[in-house]
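Input record (Table S2, row 312):
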Amino acid sequence: MAGSVAATTAMRDEVGLYPQGAAFIDGACVPIEEARIPILDWGFVRSDCTYDVVHVWHGRFFRLDHHLDRFEQSVAAMYLKNPYTRAQVVDILMRLVRLTGLREAYVEVLVTRGMPKQATRDPRLCENRFYAFVVPFIWIATDEMRARGIHLHVSDVVRIPPQSLNPAIKNFHWADMTKGLMQAYERGCDMPVLLDLAGGIAEGPGFNVFAVKDGTVTTPAGTCLLGISRQTALDLLQEQNVKTVIGPISPAELRAADEVFITSTAGGILPVTRIDHQPVGDGEFGPVSTRLKTVYWQRHDQGWDCTPIDYD
Ligand SMILES: Cc1ncc(COP(=O)(O)O)c(C=O)c1O
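Output record (pyridoxal-5'-phosphate complex):
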């Protein structure tokens, strides 16, 4: 057992100590393989928790403030309280990345309901807990999928509706997503896109959806997470003077689009080349998605909206 490193311990000689990943639990940093949560934490037994995922690329956090803003909004909307301040969270994340030595990393922060001191069903009596972990960058799609474009399945599974849970809160209610994924695999597709109650396109497991038709790019709102990569795509498209619309997309419109792409922190801009085995447009990467994807990664190379990590 490598043992834990208290969060306040000095930093010297720690860079790269835990190359497989590092986690912050109970005030200490531990190697990822030793990270454990208590079984009675309601985050585990009830999915009573919220989280966020930010990535590190070339040794810099990408759009960290956007992620922490969304995280804080989610924490408040879930009637949770983070025992750590934002400045402390940033320090912990910096520390964890340095401990891994990773230049490209997947970084997750969570606040769970935690546990009550005595048996009760009253969530107000629980002591909320903050966790964080850093592991090597995780792609939402394999190398092969990224090279040939994503093959989507339009699922008939309805994403948990906003009447039940505000989709702007990043949440652990993924039984619908897992059902959709299993059905997509059964049909020989890579991943599903779930519907909203009105039959429109909502979102998929870990991504937002965009359709391009006659030069206009549309993405839904109100029934999906407001992805930070979704916002980045909108920001970059607007810079390029591409017309963007926030509005509904029907499955028929998605199938008839010139181009379709998805966005995620775990992969950026990912063109979709097939929907239910039928080609999207001519079945190749389209010009709007290709340019957007290129600019997205150029911005990473340039350090645009990035927070550098001091590894020295
Ligand atoms: C349900 C859902 N929608 C969309 C996204 C994409 O959000 P972001 O671009 O912030 O990663 C995610 C990210 O994990 C997600 O879980």
